[in-house]
């Protein structure tokens, strides 16, 4: 029994934000884009398992570059979606907070002296509660790429 208590104390000192025996939550997401042409496109279906009250970050991004006009190196930036979900569970109900950030390169401008890249950013903040295993949808709309829908399913893990 002493060895177990000592191990728990050491683990608590090394991993202070981890609660052993805490509930785990499976965060499953699916992103679908309906373009301005009306065509539906599957984007991604990331998932993560997190401890109760811990943020899951689901990222579907790609690297872009702003061309340098003065002979230096191009400046990198990220486009795509980052979905942060912080779930908590009690009595079979999962409460959640989300923050969805969508960044898209919208236009490039080039003159004799300047090259620039315009990036459009949309953010969506939400919160709610669902019965474990239930899905919810988040939508963003813009003129460049149409409608992006993230469907999020939150379940107790293991189910």
Give the rounded overall mean pLDDT: 83
The fraction of residues assigned to DSSP E strands is: over 45%
Distance between the termini: 30 Å
User: How would you spell out the order of helices and strands?
Assistant: HEEEEEEEEE
Q: Using DSSP, what is the number of strands?
A: 9
Task: Supply the number of helical segments.
Answer: 1
Oligomer: single chain
Structural class: mainly beta
Report on this model:
With 159 residues, this protein is mainly β. The chain has one domain (23-157). The protein has one helix and nine strands. Strands 1, 2, 3, 8 and 9 form a five-stranded antiparallel beta sheet that branches. The chain has a four-stranded antiparallel beta sheet with strand order 4-5-6-7, with no helix packed on it. The longest helix is centred in the first third of the chain and has 13 residues, at 2-14. The model has no long low-confidence stretch (mean pLDDT 83).
Characteristic terms for this protein:
single chain; 159 residues; mainly beta; 5-stranded antiparallel β-sheet; 4-stranded antiparallel β-sheet; 1 helix; 8% helix; 65% strand
List the helices and strands and how they pair.
Blueprint lengths: L1 H13 L9 E11 L5 E5 L2 E5 L4 E11 L8 E16 L2 E18 L4 E17 L3 E8 L3 E12 L2
Antiparallel strand pairs: 1-2, 1-3, 1-9, 4-5, 5-6, 6-7, 8-9
């Amino acid at each position: 029994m002493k060895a177990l208590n000592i191990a728990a104390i050491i683990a608590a000192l090394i991993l202070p934000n981890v609660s052993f025996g805490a509930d785990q939550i499976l965060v499953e997401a699916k992103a679908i884009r309906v373009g301005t042409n009306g065509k539906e496109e599957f984007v991604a279906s990331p998932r993560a398992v997190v401890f109760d009250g811990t943020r899951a970050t689901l990222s579907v991004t790609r690297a872009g570059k702003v061309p340098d006009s003065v002979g230096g190196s191009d400046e990198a930036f990220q486009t795509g979606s980052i979905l942060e979900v912080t779930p908590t569970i009690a009595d079979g109900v999962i409460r959640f907070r989300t923050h969805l950030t969508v960044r898209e390169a919208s236009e490039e401008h080039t003159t004799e002296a300047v090259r620039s890249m315009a990036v459009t950013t949309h953010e969506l903040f939400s919160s709610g509660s669902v019965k474990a295993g239930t899905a919810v949808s988040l939508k963003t709309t813009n003129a460049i790429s149409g409608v992006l829908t993230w469907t999020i399913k939150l379940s107790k893990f293991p189910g």
